[in-house]
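Moderator note: this is an archived Q&A kept for reference. The question asked for a predicted structure of one protein chain; the sequence and the answer are reproduced below.
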Amino acid sequence: MSDRNTNGARSVSGDAGVRAPRADAARNRDQLLVVATRVFMAADGEPSMRAIAREAGVGIATLYRHFPTRESLVDAVYQDQIVRLTSGARELLAHLPPAESMRRWMDLFGDWTAAKNGMLGTLRAMIESGEIAHAQTRTELLTAITTILDAGRTAGDLRSDITAEDIAASLIGIFTVFPRPEQEARADRLLNLLMDGLRPAARPTPR
Protein backbone atom coordinates (compact mmCIF):
# COMPACT_ATOMS: atom_id res chain seq x y z
CA MET A 1 0.00 0.00 0.00
CA SER A 2 1.36 3.41 -0.93
CA ASP A 3 0.37 7.06 -1.07
CA ARG A 4 1.94 10.36 -2.00
CA ASN A 5 3.27 13.02 0.30
CA THR A 6 2.57 16.72 -0.05
CA ASN A 7 5.44 17.09 -2.54
CA GLY A 8 4.03 14.39 -4.79
CA ALA A 9 6.73 11.85 -3.95
CA ARG A 10 5.62 8.29 -3.39
CA SER A 11 5.92 6.88 0.11
CA VAL A 12 5.51 3.20 0.85
CA SER A 13 4.31 1.69 4.08
CA GLY A 14 5.63 -1.55 5.53
CA ASP A 15 9.32 -2.45 5.26
CA ALA A 16 10.24 0.72 3.35
CA GLY A 17 8.84 2.78 6.19
CA VAL A 18 11.12 0.94 8.57
CA ARG A 19 14.18 1.45 6.38
CA ALA A 20 13.69 5.20 5.87
CA PRO A 21 14.72 6.26 9.40
CA ARG A 22 17.81 4.06 9.11
CA ALA A 23 18.71 5.74 5.82
CA ASP A 24 18.23 9.16 7.39
CA ALA A 25 20.41 8.17 10.34
CA ALA A 26 23.14 6.98 7.98
CA ARG A 27 23.02 10.26 6.04
CA ASN A 28 23.18 12.26 9.26
CA ARG A 29 26.14 10.21 10.43
CA ASP A 30 27.93 10.71 7.10
CA GLN A 31 27.33 14.46 7.28
CA LEU A 32 28.72 14.63 10.81
CA LEU A 33 31.75 12.70 9.56
CA VAL A 34 32.32 15.23 6.77
CA VAL A 35 32.09 18.16 9.19
CA ALA A 36 34.31 16.49 11.79
CA THR A 37 36.97 15.81 9.15
CA ARG A 38 36.88 19.45 8.06
CA VAL A 39 37.18 20.66 11.66
CA PHE A 40 40.08 18.29 12.37
CA MET A 41 41.89 19.50 9.23
CA ALA A 42 41.60 23.17 10.21
CA ALA A 43 42.31 22.81 13.94
CA ASP A 44 45.58 23.83 15.61
CA GLY A 45 44.96 21.36 18.42
CA GLU A 46 42.29 18.77 19.14
CA PRO A 47 38.86 20.42 18.88
CA SER A 48 36.23 19.60 21.47
CA MET A 49 33.22 17.45 20.66
CA ARG A 50 31.07 20.49 21.40
CA ALA A 51 32.98 22.55 18.81
CA ILE A 52 32.40 19.84 16.19
CA ALA A 53 28.69 19.67 17.01
CA ARG A 54 28.44 23.46 16.78
CA GLU A 55 30.15 23.47 13.38
CA ALA A 56 27.73 20.78 12.20
CA GLY A 57 24.76 22.79 13.45
CA VAL A 58 23.52 20.05 15.78
CA GLY A 59 23.27 19.60 19.52
CA ILE A 60 25.98 17.77 21.40
CA ALA A 61 23.49 14.98 22.19
CA THR A 62 23.02 14.35 18.46
CA LEU A 63 26.76 14.02 17.94
CA TYR A 64 27.09 11.63 20.87
CA ARG A 65 24.18 9.57 19.58
CA HIS A 66 26.17 8.79 16.44
CA PHE A 67 29.63 8.81 18.07
CA PRO A 68 29.34 7.97 21.80
CA THR A 69 32.99 8.80 22.52
CA ARG A 70 35.76 10.94 21.08
CA GLU A 71 37.60 7.73 20.24
CA SER A 72 34.68 6.44 18.17
CA LEU A 73 34.61 9.68 16.17
CA VAL A 74 38.38 9.70 15.66
CA ASP A 75 38.30 6.08 14.55
CA ALA A 76 35.48 6.81 12.07
CA VAL A 77 37.30 9.80 10.55
CA TYR A 78 40.58 7.89 10.41
CA GLN A 79 39.07 4.84 8.72
CA ASP A 80 37.09 6.98 6.29
CA GLN A 81 40.28 8.73 5.19
CA ILE A 82 42.04 5.39 4.70
CA VAL A 83 39.19 4.20 2.48
CA ARG A 84 39.44 7.42 0.47
CA LEU A 85 43.14 6.81 -0.07
CA THR A 86 42.89 3.14 -0.98
CA SER A 87 39.84 3.42 -3.23
CA GLY A 88 41.08 6.78 -4.51
CA ALA A 89 44.07 5.17 -6.22
CA ARG A 90 41.82 2.96 -8.33
CA GLU A 91 39.29 5.69 -9.01
CA LEU A 92 41.94 8.15 -10.16
CA LEU A 93 43.51 5.61 -12.49
CA ALA A 94 40.11 4.95 -14.04
CA HIS A 95 39.95 8.55 -15.27
CA LEU A 96 43.49 9.94 -15.39
CA PRO A 97 46.97 8.94 -16.61
CA PRO A 98 49.15 7.37 -13.91
CA ALA A 99 51.41 10.39 -13.37
CA GLU A 100 48.45 12.73 -12.90
CA SER A 101 46.77 10.13 -10.70
CA MET A 102 49.86 10.04 -8.50
CA ARG A 103 49.86 13.83 -8.12
CA ARG A 104 46.16 13.89 -7.24
CA TRP A 105 46.68 11.02 -4.79
CA MET A 106 49.37 13.05 -3.05
CA ASP A 107 46.73 15.69 -2.35
CA LEU A 108 44.50 13.03 -0.78
CA PHE A 109 47.45 11.99 1.38
CA GLY A 110 47.89 15.62 2.42
CA ASP A 111 44.24 15.83 3.46
CA TRP A 112 44.64 12.67 5.54
CA THR A 113 47.74 14.06 7.21
CA ALA A 114 45.95 17.33 7.99
CA ALA A 115 43.03 15.46 9.54
CA LYS A 116 45.43 13.39 11.67
CA ASN A 117 47.05 16.56 13.02
CA GLY A 118 43.69 17.61 14.49
CA MET A 119 43.23 14.37 16.41
CA LEU A 120 46.84 13.41 17.06
CA GLY A 121 46.73 12.87 20.81
CA THR A 122 43.69 10.62 20.71
CA LEU A 123 45.02 8.82 17.66
CA ARG A 124 48.36 8.05 19.29
CA ALA A 125 46.65 6.69 22.38
CA MET A 126 44.43 4.45 20.25
CA ILE A 127 47.41 3.13 18.27
CA GLU A 128 49.35 2.43 21.47
CA SER A 129 46.37 0.59 22.95
CA GLY A 130 45.89 -1.47 19.79
CA GLU A 131 42.48 0.02 18.96
CA ILE A 132 43.89 1.10 15.59
CA ALA A 133 46.20 -1.24 13.68
CA HIS A 134 48.93 1.09 12.46
CA ALA A 135 50.84 -1.66 10.63
CA GLN A 136 47.75 -2.59 8.63
CA THR A 137 47.18 1.05 7.69
CA ARG A 138 50.75 1.32 6.44
CA THR A 139 50.33 -1.79 4.32
CA GLU A 140 47.10 -0.47 2.78
CA LEU A 141 48.69 2.88 1.92
CA LEU A 142 51.76 1.27 0.36
CA THR A 143 49.51 -0.98 -1.68
CA ALA A 144 47.61 2.06 -2.98
CA ILE A 145 50.87 3.76 -4.01
CA THR A 146 52.10 0.56 -5.65
CA THR A 147 48.89 0.33 -7.68
CA ILE A 148 49.61 3.72 -9.23
CA LEU A 149 53.32 3.00 -9.65
CA ASP A 150 52.64 -0.25 -11.50
CA ALA A 151 50.27 1.54 -13.87
CA GLY A 152 52.87 4.26 -14.39
CA ARG A 153 55.61 1.79 -15.21
CA THR A 154 53.37 0.09 -17.75
CA ALA A 155 52.44 3.41 -19.33
CA GLY A 156 56.03 4.64 -19.22
CA ASP A 157 55.25 7.89 -17.39
CA LEU A 158 56.65 6.92 -13.96
CA ARG A 159 60.16 5.66 -13.20
CA SER A 160 60.60 1.95 -12.70
CA ASP A 161 63.17 2.26 -9.89
CA ILE A 162 60.90 4.11 -7.43
CA THR A 163 59.29 2.19 -4.58
CA ALA A 164 56.12 2.87 -2.64
CA GLU A 165 58.26 3.30 0.48
CA ASP A 166 60.25 6.05 -1.29
CA ILE A 167 57.10 7.99 -2.04
CA ALA A 168 55.53 7.46 1.39
CA ALA A 169 58.69 8.72 3.12
CA SER A 170 58.84 11.75 0.83
CA LEU A 171 55.21 12.66 1.48
CA ILE A 172 55.57 12.31 5.24
CA GLY A 173 58.61 14.59 5.12
CA ILE A 174 56.88 17.23 3.00
CA PHE A 175 53.70 17.39 5.07
CA THR A 176 55.62 17.31 8.35
CA VAL A 177 57.66 20.38 7.38
CA PHE A 178 54.84 22.14 5.52
CA PRO A 179 51.55 20.96 7.01
CA ARG A 180 48.23 21.75 5.42
CA PRO A 181 46.29 23.97 5.29
CA GLU A 182 48.53 26.79 6.53
CA GLN A 183 51.54 25.78 4.40
CA GLU A 184 49.63 24.40 1.43
CA ALA A 185 51.34 26.54 -1.24
CA ARG A 186 54.82 25.50 -0.14
CA ALA A 187 53.78 21.86 0.17
CA ASP A 188 52.33 21.96 -3.35
CA ARG A 189 55.61 23.32 -4.73
CA LEU A 190 57.55 20.43 -3.20
CA LEU A 191 54.97 17.91 -4.40
CA ASN A 192 55.40 19.20 -7.94
CA LEU A 193 59.17 18.92 -7.60
CA LEU A 194 58.75 15.37 -6.31
CA MET A 195 56.62 14.55 -9.33
CA ASP A 196 59.37 15.88 -11.62
CA GLY A 197 61.71 13.39 -10.02
CA LEU A 198 59.27 10.52 -10.47
CA ARG A 199 59.02 10.92 -14.23
CA PRO A 200 61.50 9.06 -16.47
CA ALA A 201 64.32 11.16 -17.87
CA ALA A 202 63.68 12.34 -21.39
CA ARG A 203 65.66 10.44 -23.98
CA PRO A 204 68.05 12.55 -26.01
CA THR A 205 66.82 13.43 -29.47
CA PRO A 206 68.87 11.62 -32.16
CA ARG A 207 70.91 13.96 -34.34
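Archived answer notes: Residues 1-19 have pLDDT under 50 and may be disordered.
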